[in-house]
Amino acid sequence: MRQRNREKILIVDDEPNVRSVLLSHFKNEGSDCCASPDAFDALAKIKNQRFSLVISDVMMPGMSGMELLRLVRKRDPETAFIMITGLADINTAVDSLRIGASDFITKPFELPSVRRAVGRALERRRLLIQNRRHQEELERKVQERTLELNEALYDIEESYKITLEALVMALDAREHETSAHSQRVREYTLTLARQFGLSHDDFVHLGRGALLHDVGKIGVRDSILLKPGKLTEAEWVEMKKHPQIGYEILQNIEFLSPAAEMVLCHQERWDGRGYPNGLKGTSIPIGARIFAVVDTLDAMTSDRPYRKALSFDVALDEIRAGSGTQFDPHVVEAFLAIPQNAWLSIHASVNRKYRNQNCFDLICTISSTSL
User: Fold this and answer.
1) pLDDT per residue over 249-266, tens digit each?
2) Which CATH number among 3.40.50.1370, 1.10.10.10, 1.10.3210.10, 1.20.120.520 corresponds to the domain 176-355?
C-alpha cells in the first residue's frame, strides 16, 4: 500500500454503501481518494485533477460506467480503470477490458480481492508510464544524436566544399582562358547523365569528377598548358599525362576517390584511340563516356587562345559526326534528344553564377535542377 499512498483514487458508484465501504477502506490504508455518486460528478472532478485510478460501477443512472471509461481513456490513456459489476453484467465487464479497463470486480466483493485488483492496476499504470518516459527519452536522445550528426555532416560538407574550391581555383588560376569551363561541364554532365538512370551517389561522384576532370593539369608546365599554338609531339606526350596526374591527386583524398576513375578516363575514345590507357567501347566508364560528349560541346562553344567560340549548331554537328568513333553512340543519341535551348540555358546560367562568384554553391550536393 506504500505505492498506493502516492496515487489518487476516484470511486464512482450510485450506491452510497459501496462508495462508503471503498472510501473508508482506502482512506484507512492511507490512500488519497474521493468518491462520486455518478459519472457526471466524476468527470467534473477529473477535469480539475488527475487521478491514477478510477473504480466505477457499470450500471449508473444518466451515464454508464462503460461510457465513463471511454471518456476517461480519451482524456488520459494512462489512467487505470477498474469496473465494478454484478454477475448479470459480467459480459459488459469483459467488454470493458477490450476498450482499456485494467480489471473488473464482481459484486458482492471482498476487500482483499479489491486490494489485489487495485495493486495490479496501479502496477500496470506504473509500467505504462515508465515505458512512455523511456520512449520519450529514447526519442530525445535520437533527436540529439540526429542534430549532432547533421551538424557533423554539415561541417564535413563545408570542408569538402573548401577542398573542391581550392582545387578548382588552383586550376583556374593557371588556365584563365577556360574560366567557368569546369562548372559548365559539370552541369552539362549531370543533365545528360539524367537520361541513364544513375543512382544519387553516382550523380554526386560524377559531378565531382566533371568539376575536377582537368585537375591533373596542375602538373603540366605553363609553357605547354598556356601555349597559344599547336603543341609539338613531345609537348603532347607531357599534356597526355594530366589524366593520370589528376587520378593520383584525387585517389589520395577519400571523399574524391570515387570521382578519380572518371578523371583518369575522360580523354578515352569509343574507338580506343584515346589516352592514357587506350580503353575502348564499354570498357570506358559510363561517366567518362557521358563527359566526353559534353566536354567537346563546351570546348567548341568557348573562346580559346587559338580561336573564337564556335556556334552550338557547329558543335552539335561535330558531336553527331563523332558518334561511333570518338563517342559512345548511345550517349550521342541521348545528347541529341535534349533540346539545344537546354544547353544554351545551362551555358548562360553557369556563366552568370561564375561572374557573381556563386560557382561553388552546388559543388557538394546535386541540385534539384540537375536531377
Assistant:
1) 888 888 888 899 999 999
2) 1.10.3210.10
